[in-house]
Fold each of these.
Amino acid sequence: MPASEETSSGPVIHDHRRIDPVTGQVRGKHVASKPAGTRGAGRPAPGTPGDETTDSAEPAGSARSAGSREDQDIQETQKYPEEVPEVVTQETATGGRQQAFSPQNRAEDGKRAAELEAQLAERTADLQRLQAEYANYRKRVDRDRVAVREQAVAGTLSGLLPVLDAIDQAREHGELSGVFKSVAETLQSATSRLGLVTYGAKGDPFDPKIHEALTSSYSPDVAEDTCIEILQPGYQVGDRILRPARVAVAEPSTGPDGSSNEPDLTVPDNEDN
């Protein structure tokens, strides 16, 4: 440390703080380099220990030299104007810095936020539309899968109907016995598991949608068209009719007004003969 910066009481501490802790003013470039509590560079403040000894040792012209040094300090301070202090920003929780935004920046940010919200709404609508289309696609695929399965099962069972008719005829004539009976029961159980249903019974009302009339007659015992005999049973899978029941139909012999429905088969007399 230079000898000019030492006193009889010890080393001198320089205060390099840019802002004066007492006045709160920003110090000049030269003033900031002075020792703390002094008016001149390298001189202790008045009232410090050793001040009296130093003053007594100085010559009589030291007061004038101290005054000239103070004037020089003031001139150098005016020569170097105060610097604009830096803007101190507050650290954010994420380690970033909070910056002041001008009105123009706020307007641009608001416009950008509105554009982002519009894009978000558009993407959300696209996603909802895509989800609805996918749901409809899945329903259509499931419906088509069921229809294809029913069609395949119906085609297979339609080819087995003659075999089932032969089994029914053998059962009616008492020829279904032994191993043949076991095979027939197994086949009928398998077709039942596939959804094959047999319909048609004596006394059912005649329905042209599910019945096929092979013969027709009149009977006073019926009040409507009735199946009086089942010639071949009908088969269906679900709502699909594989083969209508083939039946003999009896019609009422009298109409609602009591007149006969039977045709008049009498031959009129030939008056010319």
Amino acid sequence: MRCTAPQPGCCRNFFQRNGITCDEIRGTRDPRFGGAHPEPIEPHIAPLQQAVTIGKYDAGFAADGDGDRIGAVDRAGAFVNPHQIFSLLVWHLAGMRDLPGDIAKLSPSPS
């Protein structure tokens, strides 16, 4: 597992607490994000894609600057956007684990 996160260690600690080996890139506190754009979207996710494919990791995750959005990369380096992650999460929880309940969705609307 390879991660980038806004709070150093938070991604790594989460995975390690759950028995998943995780390395972290861009894991230092830096309000300028090392000069990189902090959005977890292409093309800004390219360093994570390279780290995952070169390091032969199963997946990589990246959070934006304040941690409210996430992007992912599969082992082949293919980008998985935040909307796809949400869909996969719903499929897993409702479809595979058969968890009951409603799903709430907030869509921003023009004021």
Amino acid sequence: MARAVEQRFRVAKPWGDSAPYDLIVEQDGLVYRVQVKSSMRRPHGSSYPCHMPQGKRLVHVLEEIDYVAAYLIPLDLWYIIPAGVVAMRKGSIWLAPWRRQSKYERYLEAWHLLRRWRGGSYAGKAAGSRATGAVSRRSGEAAVRSLGG
């Protein structure tokens, strides 16, 4: 949460544990639901794993979130990964920041993704097919926007 605040986002944590997301991140009227995952150890010197739910639970979670924020504790690094990308990889997240051209390299410290309007070029195929709500303060009232897909 502290890193998101440093990036000038407003951060809210839902009350209780019934939401599939851990944080709500807002900036300039754009609101995103973020699930936070962390990893501390590399098994046998390979990549850092960030475990997502399996099966139907994974499908449900990915329908209810916009991004996964994966934190590598020993390196103090964040990955901001769109839910659509996680869905395309079937929930398997293995992070290797030292490896060039890794699957998730483009999402390393990618806070700029949370500043883009929904449906922009970073939305994955799975995310493009589902509707998500965004709150726009500029219009003076809540407006529900859906992704074009």
Amino acid sequence: MRILSRVFRGKFIDLLKQARSRGKLIGAEDDRTFHRLLDASVKHDWVVYARRPFGGPEQVLKYLARYTHRIAISNRRLVSVDDQSVSFRWKDYAHHNRPRTMTLDGAEFLRRFLIHAVPRASCASVTSACWPTVCAHRTWPFADN
């Protein structure tokens, strides 16, 4: 896992450098701040968790095929949308798949929706493992909070 950790860290830092050179990073505009953040990020080993798939490679491919060719929420599940909120249908698996309706404010709906969006220039395995955590981490130094 140590090699995978170093490869992921290297790719992630390279993408950060590319984003900064294109002016896409917020909060790290000056060289000193950016290099301080990079130095801090490489001082520690990154934890990458991976284990053998339970069902073998065929099972992993079936799972990824379903995941990569679906959208986060279909139009038929949307009940209503207004300037403040979004209402949608969902299955309550804890209560025998009972259909329910949830209403969220627009920002929270978008946050949850984007957790399932694959960022450009990333692969599905990296995204499914790390991107939702990074998105939900409100103190991430490059986020525009």
